[in-house]
Amino acid sequence: MAFDGLFIHSLLHELSPEIIDGRLSKIYQPFEQDLVLVFRKNRKNKQLLISANAQYPRMYLTKQSISNPDKAPTFVMVLRKYLEGSVLQSIEQVGVDRIINYHFSNRNELGDEVELVLSVELMGRHSNVILYDQQDGHIIDLLKRINPDENRARILLPKAKYELPPLKPGINGLNVTENEFKDLKNKYPDETELAKNIDGLDRDDRLELSGYLEDDYSYSSFKTFFDQFDNPRGFVLKTPKNKRKIFCYLPYHLDLEKESSDPNLDHALDEFYEYQANRDWVKQRASQVERIVKNEQKKLSKKIIKLKKQLDLAENSEGYRIRGEILNANLGMVKPGMTKVELPNYYDNNNPIEVKLDPALSPARNAQKYFTKYKKLRDSIKHVNEQIKIAENNLQYFDSIQTAIDNANPQDIEQITDELINQGYLHKKQTKKRRKKITERNLNKFKLTSGKTVLVGKNNYQNDWLTLKKANKSDYWFHVKNMPGSHVILQDDNPSEQDIQEAAEIAAYFSKGKLSAHVPVDYVQDKRVKKPNGAKPGFVIYTGQNSIEVTPEEKEVLTKKIN
Hints:
By secondary structure, the protein is an alpha+beta fold. It has helices at about 5-20, 75-85, 180-185, 190-195, 205-215, 220-225, 265-285, 285-315, 320-330, 365-405, 415-420, 460-470, 495-510, 555-560, and strands at about 25-30, 35-40, 45-50, 60, 85-95, 100-105, 115-120, 130-135, 140, 235-240, 245, 255-260, 340-345, 350-355, 445, 455, 475-480, 490, 520-525, 530, 540, 545-550, 560.
């Protein structure tokens, strides 16, 4: 179920009492399509997330820690000017459409009271957040300014008159009386036709309503369906293809399997969208970094293939030496101007071997040319092997950066960016920022069944800090074998077999092998882990390790996480 009109109606049942009459104390835009509004009410902060993301526009109260950017975009500066410190008077949904109006009262520079509306339109790719003056209806500013050529239905620019988007007329099922239902039943003898004409339903809701009416085409059945939206809960269900969906009621007529339920819809939404939103926010912040990583991976992969071809040629260069020797032994058989000659190969029972010649050179010089090429190729083997090793190490390094991005939170991207700047892969920005000090709060933290603590680095800087500075020498260090992954520290000097198993599963989950069924994990006391001089961030060597093979299960790992 998407954020359709009826879902929004249900959400407002919980949301409105939480923030109405609250004072808007803080506004920021952590990401391009997302706003965070912090309301202060009853000495508590309530954090409202509003997203105009085209794929899944949404709004709900969130407890996630979302960082405030150093520089505020223009729209946020306008919102702060007009709304910061104002009181939220009411929240109104336009019918059962995906438009929600937040009504604020504030005072302007002259001290006069003004009424402002923040209109949130959660309409797929047309989603937007628009601030306008209620008195004259003119737009003050909006999240997405739309060129008139792109939208001829209405003008979405500052100073234009605010108009509702074109809305498809339909029946508001929440207000239908018993007599009106009888008329509708006569008009639509087929229950699916009636469901198609009800406003505010997405495809899943429409199918569920049709199921209710197929069971019993009566007002009682109709009302039972719609009453659910006035008493919402959060239900997460899975499709047969394991796609997760969230509902504000429990559907019975859809091919879905219940995963979880929550009496609080806001809380359910926060948890449901946490992973996907996190991935999107990371993607936005890491776009430049990821582009560099992928380019370097591509270049290094091509370089390694080319070097291995060179190595293969060098290791199979005996043919040049043999042709040089045979040519030297048969100089008299070579006539001026010849481009090739067939000579008896005494290394192969005198079978003929073709020797290519440069007609501009003498027979002896041609032979010398073969010896020179042979020596050059043989001498290159050591150098090519060294270059292959360097390229493979660099590729492994960029694989580790990609793994860190895949496991990162938005606030971790800054450290990954700093790392690439310090390694010379990214140019420094003009504004010099001081690198934030790494603390235990930056790490992922887990509690095992035994109560012991496991710490996990989320990027190479954190990995180095965790392993080389934070961990006690007697703690146990875990890392997946021969692939990129996080450094994992089990804070204990005498772990049980179960502790080792659980810590290894965490290490496997935070690695490139997180989706594999059998992941080998090395573990050893931290005192046996060393960092070679000049090694890249995150790279260490270790000795005396043991290994264990595990299968990382996402649910099992994340239930141990400490927020």
